[in-house]
């Protein structure tokens, strides 16, 4: 594997990615997920989205127990408005077939809710993966840019106007739109090398992910909920890209730290730290995480989509913040496990 890299763009964002996964804490629940974005036909080909997820409980004695696992495999006609052409889920959910033909873009999450309402209400791993498909499909466009696919000036104008000011990175006066207007090319920035996240001394730290092929991309998430008063929340979010010569680099890397009232599930504190982002304009969006303080986690996905918009926000940070809604389900699992462990100790 070569480590030769392009010179950094002069206006690149922070290049300090997360270097490790923290040890699992006794009395905690860890939810991890990954979505691989694959283009077996090259950057012009069909987009395959392959996701896996796992909930892992760590008991008071440090013992690991798998609570749930899920997988989603989808094929998307990237050139045909992101139309979903194939979908498979494990566990198998017949309602998922109602999503075929839908665009994995605007409106897809609402369609998931209508097709699989119980998955949404229970905040299952399958729902997490399906809910994440639009974000994964969107960020997969980086592979096209990294593959030196030019955007013509004729097509760039309308596209840029449509995306302008949707987030901090797409500011009208920011690096991306200014360079699109100047050169007719979507600028790409090569991020820092991706540190290995799996510690050698804990095979349970993450669910299994295989090798990432050239032009492939991977989105990884981790949410640790730690028992206590208040509950401690540790969220990690990363997007990476694999170059043709086998170098994996980081595009987005966020850490979110929070505290949650175990009785009301009110967010008592929440702070986002941008560790690796494409452009100098991007990190300013991290302050938006504080707007969730004082809210309960109920309905957080809808609230984030409706309220965290514009140049003070980040699309990818929003994806990480939306997942905090799952704390409602995870806290119940954690509380039940703690009660069971306490009862067992009393009986002993």
How would you describe the overall organization of this protein?
The chain has 348 residues and is of the alpha+beta class. The protein has nine helices and eight strands. The protein has an eight-stranded antiparallel sheet, with helices on one face. A hairpin with a 5-residue loop joins strand 2 and strand 3. The longest helix has 21 residues. The termini are far apart. About 3% of the residues have low confidence.
Task: Sum up the structure in keywords.
348 residues; alpha+beta; 8-stranded antiparallel sheet; 9 helices; globular
Write the layout of secondary structure elements.
Layout: E1 28-38, E2 47-58, E3 64-77, E4 83-90, H1 108-115, H2 117-121, H3 125-139, H4 141-146, H5 153-163, H6 175-183, E5 217-226, E6 231-242, E7 248-260, E8 267-276, H7 300-307, H8 315-322, H9 327-347
Antiparallel strand pairs: 1-2, 1-5, 2-3, 3-4, 5-6, 6-7, 7-8
Brief digest:
The chain has nine helices and eight strands. It has 348 residues and is of the alpha+beta class.
Q: What series of H and E elements makes up the topology?
A: EEEEHHHHHHEEEEHHH
Q: What is the typical, i.e. mean, pLDDT?
A: 88
- Assign a percent range to the helix content: 25-40%
Largest sheet: 8 strands, antiparallel
Query: Ends: how far apart?
Result: 55 Å
Structural class determined from secondary elements: alpha+beta
The portion of residues forming beta strands comes to: 25-35%
User: How does the overall form come out from the CA principal axes?
Assistant: globular
Number of beta-strand segments: 8
How big is the Rg?
A: 20 Å
Strand order of the largest sheet: 4-3-2-1-5-6-7-8
Low-confidence segments:
149-158
Q: Count every helix, treating DSSP H or I runs of 4 or more residues as helices.
A: 9
